[in-house]
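Narrative summary of target 7.
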Amino acid sequence: MKKLKLAVVAFLASLFIGANAFADTVGVLNYKNVLMSYNYAKETIKLLDNKETELQQYMLDKEKQYKNLANPVERKSFEEKVQREYKSKVDALSKMRVQKEEEIFNNIMAVAKRVATQKKIDVIVDSSVVLTGGIDITNEVVSGLNNK
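Modeled conformation, tokenized:
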């Protein structure tokens, strides 16, 4: 009976030790706060907003020009030309937006991985999916990004 109790205790101890051996250290990152605090991201958002404003102004200017055209043939030609130019500008802006968002994301990921390595963190998750626990690395990531 004593051997059985000893075997059960040894088995339970091995489960607890084994569970700790496989546990990952979890880091928590508030991605939204990182974006709002990352200087380059804020500058990029301003740049993209300015480009959108320029696009709106372009359309307002073209609308004024259109109203000054009396000839229906000129109006039709002008309309087609403006549509092509507008589409080209929208496509370029969309491409720029995707490129900048990808660049920002990659920068954040690189710094987050560096911080995780320094703190010996195995997994990083967004804070929106964590109710409790984890090591918050948001401030370290923001500092790393802004000091780059």
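The first helix runs from residue 2 to 22.
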